[in-house]
Amino acid sequence: MIVLVRRHLLTLIAVTALVASACGDNAPPQPRTVADAFAAALSSGNVAAAAAETSDPAGASTVITQMFDGLRGGGTVDATPTFTVTQADEDAKSFTMSGSWSFTVPGSTPDPDSTVTQTSAPSTIAQDFPSERIWAYSTTGTAAETDQGWKIDWDPAAVVPGLTNGSTIRYTPTTADTAPRVLDGAGAELMSRQVVTLVNIDASADTSAVAALVSPIAPTVTAESLAADLSVSTSGTTTAVSLRQSDLDPIQDRLAALPGVTLAPQTRLLTTDRAVASPALSGVADLWQTAETAGAGWAVQLVGPDGTVTGQLAGQDATVGPDIATTLDTSLQLKAENALSSLPNQSAIVAIRPSTGAVLAVAQNAAADAQGPIALTGLYPPGSTFKTVTTSAALQAGTATPDTALPCPGTENIEGRQIPNDDNFDLGTVPLHTAFARSCNTTMARLAVALPDDALQQAALQFGLGVDYVTPGLTTVTGSVPPATTPAERVESGIGQGAVTATPFGMALVAASIANGSTPLPMLVQGRPATADQAPTPVPTQVTDQLKTMMRETITAGTATVLQDVPGLLGKTGTAEVANAPAHGWFVGIQGDLAFAVFVAGGNSSAPALTAAGAFLR
């Protein structure tokens, strides 16, 4: 019995030994196992797990954390690592690991199929793909058996060649010494990259001293305004003002000497002439920034303990893209801005070249700027300027000709809507061209009633009003002219009231369409015209010619005789009623290959718009 037990025991020992021997033959080498775990932890961004696979978890954690932070640019860059063990030598207890970092910067579109490769020696860098933001390299390390099991012999160079315990790595974007410029229609510099300095203050700053220095440049900055900004700041700091270099130079030393003041220079795209300010430039700046981002360079740098760069491991030099040539006419832009500057009401001027659709000027005054880009997207009733559309619809329908005699009573009840002329003027019976030039509401309302439901909508589309344009560098709305399904609605729409709305840009496009005989595609960047969501049939040439004749009569013998000294001017005035507020004032005009619209919110008549138009043209 005892012998039997012993035999079973010997058999059990033999089987156990055989299993252990078999497991040992099939198990991967321990250096490979720990290296694979180390690579997997790095690839997943798990710093703690990666550090735990090393012989010095604390030291490894510090270095790897700093590396991840540096390569992620303080959170501004998505740095995605991939580490793979490619070879392991069990006898030498060593391994080879490939490392790859993919950098994605907001606004960039790197090609994922190409790489910048670093060999085991950091000085050898191949940059065969200049647009890439992928950094690949190879590194080596060793492993040893410790009391805690197999561990990576901690050496920062096992993660990145050249990395030491006292250094780190960072990703940084780079820019070229020069940058694309934004040019006006004549090829002159309109905008360029310039240095702007932020004057930042904290709670310890003397707000009176700061305001005394900057208020001559920025009059709205006061000690009180600075104190108010600081009181609501969650960071305890606020930017007092941003200064161009020419403004900063005379006061820079005195500002820098003030306690609690920090000067932070930045580069921004600014107008070369500070007097030029247009809502159209916002979209141009976006195009410029897209090109600047696409051409931005990058570098992976080795940084010493004192923060100095000791070497570049990978990267690509920045490239300079082509200048952006706009269609803006700087001279016209300044004239438009000056024409509006003294108006207290929100005001805008948009000018277009009818033959090409080139946007020549988009101007607003300070009151309008506070509301946003109203010149391009602000919707308002167009009032009597819409009579260009109503008259076009009537002429195309054959219900009247320019010489058709029509009544123009001072006021008339049409379909339950009492329609008055301005100050109830009464012309009796007059030709259509006279009713147009003198802006007879009663005549136009009566014409509109006789039209089909969608006649005004279709006539407006023929002039671009209601068409949606996608214009590179320019965000616009033209207007809305819904079908007028009842006679009362047609009465309102016929005189540019009711549900009809238009932007200054939209009415400038109406004028350009009349001048050109068809609606030109708007264009702000030369060679890049807009695309339209529809292409209505153009208005017959005979009709646009008749409209131009009537618009000329508006200047010579109608509601815009104040501008009759302006050579060759054609136009149409407009006053648009607004509920519980002063009426808006409009003027649309054509002079040769120039079409424009002037809008004055709450002007109470077309007079302020006419005054601004005169200042713009003379």
Shape: elongated
Radius of gyration: 37 Å
Provide the domain count: 3
* Secondary structure category: alpha+beta
Largest sheet: 6 strands, mixed
CATH topology of the largest domain: Beta-lactamase
CATH superfamily of the largest domain: DD-peptidase/beta-lactamase superfamily
The overall pLDDT average reads: 90
First and last CA, distance: 127 Å
CATH class of the largest domain: Alpha Beta
How many DSSP H or I helices?
Answer: 20
Please mark out the parts with pLDDT under 50 across 5 or more consecutive residues, or reply none.
Answer: 1-25, 107-131
As a percent range, the share of strand residues is 25-35%
Question: Helical amount among residues, as a percent range?
Answer: 25-40%
Overall strand count: 27
Going by CATH, the architecture of the largest domain would be 3-Layer(aba) Sandwich
Pfam families: Transpeptidase (PF00905)
Keywords: Signal
Region (Disordered): 104-125
Signal peptide: 1-22
Secondary-structure blueprint of this entry?
Layout: H1 2-26, H2 30-43, H3 47-52, H4 57-71, E1 78-89, E2 94-104, E3 116-118, E4 125-126, E5 134-146, E6 149-152, E7 168-174, E8 182-183, E9 189-202, H5 207-214, H6 223-232, E10 237-244, H7 245-248, H8 252-256, E11 261-271, H9 280-294, E12 297-303, E13 309-316, E14 324-325, H10 330-340, E15 347-352, E16 359-364, H11 366-369, H12 374-377, H13 387-397, E17 405-408, E18 411-414, E19 417-420, E20 428-431, H14 432-437, H15 441-449, H16 455-461, E21 469-470, E22 479-480, H17 487-494, E23 501-502, H18 504-516, E24 531-532, H19 541-557, E25 570-578, E26 581-591, E27 594-600, H20 607-617
Parallel strand pairs: 3-5, 8-14
Antiparallel strand pairs: 1-2, 2-5, 3-4, 5-6, 7-12, 8-9, 9-10, 9-11, 12-13, 15-16, 15-27, 17-20, 18-19, 21-24, 22-23, 25-26, 26-27
Pfam families: Transpeptidase
Protein name: Penicillin-binding protein
Signal peptide: 1-22
